[in-house]
């Protein structure tokens, strides 16, 4: 598996990143800056990033950066940042989707500061979240684009002048400024960026992602999906989302160029995404990542026009994650695009989270997505008991595949936390705990929450067939807050610990209740049903504060 040239005339392979035990090992001192600089030297004229702007033209305007051009822009923006920031300062990215965003993210790291990928203040419905995150990370500077600069300045106008961060439009910085760039003194275990969690039930927390963590996680993805230097990616995901962000960081470690479009471009015309996944003359395999709803949306509205040619035979893997994966969405997508050569193995249900950088597990490259039918009553009682699909209490569970190389995931009895985590056998539901070099090192500025979440011990491992085997006895484990279970070696996610609905002493997973409601009436739109518990004889006073947004 070739990952590109390390030196002129030499190719770097995946095996070069493995230690004597077959585990992923990032060479000491290798940071994201080193990865990118390698490409600017050895692949200067090779395409690195491509953005299709559909805001003015129906068929889109294509903007591209080679590795050489990318490196020039990074040094220029980083040099400007070095004039107004100190090493370790936070630099927030408040730019629209596009190449300026990618440049901004990497340039903050090139400057020796900590990159904080956020979003344009014009993004509807996210003002409170943006205020909360900016208050948490306290950035010294903001990187944006000229088209958004006025809105960004307006956003900070309420602050006293001395408290406002420096606002910089990256596209207004001349390339020549890069002549003053000083390579930062950063180490592999320094924080590269803060990935803020969704914050659906709390104030968003910034996960501290080191250079080692992101490098390890990218190689885990390369291995799991079987990518190589000729693989190219396509994404419409927001670049501040961990799944979108890792997709655009990936070329720095392995893979070909990435094609980017905006989320709205996909939602309005999902065929744009499908078309970019199609085969091209160079024969490159393609990959992408998207949440579950995208597959159903593309199946319904993303087919080519009658008579239009479309070849999807080159699709390596479509990571399906970020929300519960449903059998119906996969079935509809496969049926819609199988006539165009889509491999049956294309969709890859996966499991991941910001605290793990992103990726934890996925279906093997050569396997089709696996669905196991289990007894609902037994599952609610904490046991995974397979049944026939036609059985009365049968419920479908989608496998999230096998845990990534050099990632450890154990299922722990949630009641055993205070006495030391106790691993439960396969087939039994418990909380998923994670360990590995891909893990974040904590939450920015939250030592107590960091200790509670990231610094746990699995004291009572199974005497045989433990999923903690290979991890040091004193290893720290991260509590995910997710319920899961192993069956036939594969990981299944059954729900969130905090979301469990308890009625008359019986456990119910909210996604099961939501699915049953959606299947019972076509009047209910998929993805627009929420199940939650309230005290007896009491209705919630307020369900939604803001209007919902499809997609």
UniProtKB/TrEMBL annotation:
<dbReference type="GO" id="GO:0071766">
    <property type="term" value="P:Actinobacterium-type cell wall biogenesis"/>
</dbReference>
<dbReference type="InterPro" id="IPR047968">
    <property type="entry name" value="FAAL_FadD32"/>
</dbReference>
<dbReference type="InterPro" id="IPR042099">
    <property type="entry name" value="ANL_N_sf"/>
</dbReference>
<dbReference type="InterPro" id="IPR000873">
    <property type="entry name" value="AMP-dep_synth/lig_dom"/>
</dbReference>
<protein>
    <submittedName>
        <fullName>AMP-binding protein</fullName>
    </submittedName>
</protein>
<comment type="similarity">
    <text>Belongs to the ATP-dependent AMP-binding enzyme family.</text>
</comment>
<dbReference type="InterPro" id="IPR045851">
    <property type="entry name" value="AMP-bd_C_sf"/>
</dbReference>
<keyword id="KW-0443">Lipid metabolism</keyword>
<keyword id="KW-0436">Ligase</keyword>
<dbReference type="Pfam" id="PF00501">
    <property type="entry name" value="AMP-binding"/>
</dbReference>
<dbReference type="GO" id="GO:0005886">
    <property type="term" value="C:plasma membrane"/>
</dbReference>
<dbReference type="GO" id="GO:0016874">
    <property type="term" value="F:ligase activity"/>
</dbReference>
<dbReference type="InterPro" id="IPR040097">
    <property type="entry name" value="FAAL/FAAC"/>
</dbReference>
<feature type="domain" description="AMP-dependent synthetase/ligase">
    <location>
        <begin position="45"/>
        <end position="444"/>
    </location>
</feature>
<dbReference type="GO" id="GO:0006633">
    <property type="term" value="P:fatty acid biosynthetic process"/>
</dbReference>
<keyword id="KW-0276">Fatty acid metabolism</keyword>
<dbReference type="GO" id="GO:0070566">
    <property type="term" value="F:adenylyltransferase activity"/>
</dbReference>
